[in-house]
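Here's what a typical entry looks like (Methylmalonyl-CoA epimerase):
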Amino acid sequence: LFVCIDHIGLAVPDMDEALRLHVDVMGWRLLHREQNQEQGVDEAMLGTGAQGDENAMIQLLAPLSPESAVGKFIEKNGGRGGIQHIAYRVADMDAVDATLRERGATLLYPAPKSGTGGARINFIHPKSTGGVLLEITEPPAAPHH
Ligand code: CMX
Ligand code: CO
């Protein structure tokens, strides 16, 4: 079903501080910045390879409000950041969505929503995955170089 681990989503209380740590100290490369109002996040996508050809990126997620999914996650975590989700990349969201439902998985949204750069995303609730929030993501069509 899954192509690879697309990214690990890290909840961060302070985006500037998190970028300093991951880019300046760890040496990750900043690929993309975006605010997604629907998801309630200010996000940064970090990678090591050529953009568009990335495997296992890091997604930094700062909450746009305390009531957002990431805001609540940080609050429950005593105000600290942490691993908020793991995202599996798929090539065909509609096919994987149908197969997962057929196999009894509970997807969060009835239909995919918009994620990073127009990716199509859905989630499986941590209650039905043994405690880990799983994102399923179909990246947008590869950009032309
Ligand atoms: N990982 C693991 N467990 C989590 C969790 C997470 N990220 N978020 C919540 N939980 C657990 C809580 O610990 C809690 O467990 P207990 O009942 O045992 O205490 C339970 O789930 C309910 O917690 P909650 O704070 O009431 O959280 P909600 O039910 O309101 O929300 C969820 C949980 C998954 C529905 C919500 O986080 C959500 O809608 N997530 C999908 C959207 C999202 O995360 N967007 C940000 C990323 C966007 C992107 O990647 O582009
Ligand atoms: Co994500």
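The first strand starts at residue 4 and ends at 11.

More examples are in the samples folder.
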